[in-house]
Amino acid sequence: MRIFVYGSLRRKQGNSHWMTNAQWLGDHCVEDYQLYSLGHYPGAVPGDGSVLGEVYRIDAATLGELDALRTAGGEYKRQLIQTPYGSAWMYVYQRPVEGKKFIPTGNWLDRDQY
After folding, report:
1. Residues 89 and 71: beta-carbon distance below 8 Å
2. If we measure between CA atoms, which residue out of 78, 70, 99 comes closest to residue 3?
3. First and final C-alpha spacing in the chain
4. Which Gene3D superfamilies does the record cross-reference, listed alphabetically (predicted)?
5. CA 76 to CA 87: how far, in whole Å?
6. What pTM was computed for the model?
7. What pLDDT, on a 0 to 100 scale, did the predictor assign at position 17?
8. How many Å apart are CA 25 and CA 104, to the nearest integer?
9. Which of 1, 53, 94, 107 sits in a 20 to 30 Å window from 43, CA-based?
10. What is the DSSP string of 26-37?
11. For every one of its 114 residues, what pLDDT tens digit does the chain have, with 9 covering 90 and above?
12. How deeply is 32 buried, as exposed, middle or buried, from its count of CB atoms within 10 A (0-12, 13-18, 19+)?
């Protein structure tokens, strides 16, 4: 299975150690989403824009660990999206983003510019 990650799970980011057993497939930009900074990590929500990230091949054990990390408390919901590498899971933020910092480039690496 595959997963699209766009924030702290990306290479050289704070939670990238969760991806140790994953196989990087390539970069991808998901359309019709907007990216917001939630502090130390981002949240992507449906909207007019795009979100840049990375696609990985992962096993069921890794997906289970990521689900425990991301979906606890209902903060994110996992959704299936299409990528050039095949369908992939993406964690979509489920809470209101009013008052959160919008990242217009859709790239978490640009967060300090806004």
Report:
1. no
2. 78
3. 34
4. Gamma-glutamyl cyclotransferase-like
5. 18
6. 0.93
7. 86
8. 25
9. 1
10. EEEEEEEEEEEE
11. 999 999 988 988 888 888 988 999 999 999 999 999 998 899 999 999 999 999 999 999 999 989 988 877 889 999 999 999 999 999 999 999 999 999 999 999 999 887
12. exposed
- Nearest 5°: phi and psi at 16? -65, -20
The structure tokens listed for 89 are: 């899971």
The pairing of beta strand 101-103 with beta strand 86-93: unpaired
Between CA 87 and CA 106 the distance in angstroms is 20
Name the token pair of 68: 């425990």
Q: Which two tokens stand for residue 78?
A: 């996992």
Q: In sequence order, what are the beta bridge partners of 75?
A: none
**Token pair in block for residue 61:** 């054990």
The confidence score (pLDDT) of residue 15 equals 83
